Amino acid sequence: MRALTFNPDLSFADVPDPVPAPSQALIRVAAFSLNFGEIAYRSATPRPGHVPGWDAAGVVVRAAADGSGPAAGTRVVTFGWSGAWAELRAVDTSELAVVPDSVDLGLAAALPVAGVTALQAVRRLGPVTGRRVLVTGASGGAGRYAVQLAARAGAHVVASVGGPARAEGLRELGASEVVFGPENLAGRVYGVLDHVGGRQLAEAFYRLEDDGVVMAIGRAAREATLIDFELAGTRSARGRIENFNVATPFGGDLAHLLELLAAGELDAQVGWRGPWDKAVEAADALLSRRVPGKAVLDL
């Protein structure tokens, strides 16, 4: 089958078809989305024939042998830590969800890592009704989902972006305030959903309310975080930072997000879409911050 691989740069290759385990379904991929992390933090020494990719949607061509999961012909969205950037994908049935007929498969492909990360991070903050929640990197894929889901949970959402162009559409998604970096935030916040790391994570921490929490989700800045815990007058008395990692399996959370998408209560925020032979162009646009939201490639 045809697949995109790093060899060492992103290019097409012919690789063997995947062989599903008994608990896996075989999917004919229709579309997949790109994530900043799988490109920016790819291995410096990729394995020959290894197929990267986390998020893909398509149609089941062979149901799981153990009887779990949907039947052949079912439209699904899938997650895994590899294997998405190919014509065929073998995926555990616990890591997929059935896509409603009204939902485009390309939009569904934008959901898994970014959408489920945002959903679980908002859930991890606990009750946020009426509380200020800061989302850093709010213009990215996970950030735009976080703005929507935090607002849906009742939070007063403050979206932090790099500049006016990156702020486009965030108020319509539920942001009550938009700031250009946490250092320009007025007042304090209960929670932070940080997708940037580095200096921005430190600045956000200094602006926590007592008992506030920073969810350290991503490291888009690609720099270390240095925090002065003794910086008088600019930190909460009992604030904390939690190293957030998304939990698997994804199936249940994907089904919930698809329900919201089908009902018009969630926007997939696809900012770039094209054929998969434009993958290099899409990856470059994503890394250079020219994509608001998600980049989706169609097969």
> Main beta sheet: strand number and arrangement?
7 strands, mixed
Whole-number total of structural domains? 2
Structural class: alpha/beta
The outline comes out as globular
List unreliable stretches of 5+ residues.
none
Strand content: 25-35%
CATH topology of the largest domain: Quinone Oxidoreductase, Chain A, domain 1
Cα distance spanning the termini: 12 Å
Rg over C-alpha atoms, rounded to the nearest angstrom: 19 Å
Roughly how much helix do the residues carry, as a percent range? 10-25%
Helix and strand element order: EEEHEEEEHHEHEHEEHEEHEHE
Name given to the CATH architecture of the largest domain: Alpha-Beta Complex
Q: How many distinct beta strands? A: 15
Number of helices: 8
Mean pLDDT: 94
Would you identify the CATH H-level superfamily of the largest domain?
Medium-chain alcohol dehydrogenases, catalytic domain
The first-level CATH class of the largest domain is given as Alpha Beta
Protein name: Alcohol dehydrogenase
Organism: Bailinhaonella thermotolerans
GO molecular function, one term: NADPH binding
Pfam families: ADH_N (PF08240), ADH_zinc_N_2 (PF13602)
Question: What does this protein look like?
Answer:
By secondary structure, this protein is α/β, with parallel strands linked by helices. It has 2 domains: 2-110 and 268-298, Medium-chain alcohol dehydrogenases, catalytic domain (Quinone Oxidoreductase, Chain A, domain 1, Alpha-Beta Complex), CATH 3.90.180; 114-243, NAD(P)-binding Rossmann-like Domain (Rossmann fold, 3-Layer(aba) Sandwich). The protein is 23% helix and 29% strand. The chain has helices at 36-40, 105-109, 112-125, 141-152, 170-173, 198-205, 251-262, 279-287; strands at residues 2-6, 10-14, 24-34, 55-62, 75-79, 88-92, 96-98, 132-136, 156-160, 175-179, 189-194, 208-216, 240-243, 270-275, 294-298. Helix 3 (112-125) crosses helix 4 (141-152). The longest helix has 14 residues, at 112-125. The protein starts with a strand and ends with a strand.
